[in-house]
Give the backbone structure.
Amino acid sequence: MNEFQIKQNLDSHDQDWVKKVYEQTCVLFYWNHDEFELWTTNGWFSLDEMIDDYENESSVQNPDLYKTVEDIVRLIKSLPGYEKKLLDSNVNGISKSELFVNVVYNIWEPTLYATAEKYKEKSEHLNFKRIVFEKNGVYYNLEQRKNITESLLTIEVDFVERDESYVSIPLSRHYNFEETMDYIVKELSLNSDPEYNDYSINIYVHRSNKKVLIPKTFEEMKEFVSKIHELRDF
């Protein structure tokens, strides 16, 4: 799909198209250098990733299909993963958006600064992507050293200088919000610990407890995405 052509189509149609699409979908359809990303308070997916869910991808890949706000709204709402991946949901009393926003401000940001202070130029970095719910998810338990299959609330996070990794929270344990945050810190710390891996990762995991705002409006969402780009580029 020629995504740049879609951007050109939309820019020529309505300069305010990003805001109008967000107001109708709760998705920030964000142009990032050379591709579209779909941002919500649960995290983000590339447009390519979302279209991969279609059984017949070619049916939606013609850029001439997308010239107006209505066209993009229709595309987003028709995506197979729109409700499951993009919209917020509540799992065991915890909303995906509440958890992801708190991870950004109360784990990712303080870990970034604590790591820089401890390791300085040898610091390594995290990149939190999103939270997804998997009914029959599989995760590797570092303490038990084996794969486990069960319902999961999964946080996808990159160890930037290494490779992709996942912090998976087993829902059967019925963690409350505080326990869930503590579990994430523990799992990230285990991933950085040479006792559980064949190498040491220079990341010092740290958690704060500041009160955060869950973005609702277009301006709040833009500010949230800007914060994530700031942490990525640190």
About this structure: The chain is about 40% helix and 25% strand. Strands lie at 28-32, 35-40, 43-46, 90-91, 94-95, 126-141, 146-159, 164-170. Residues 3-86 form one domain. The chain has a mean pLDDT of 88.
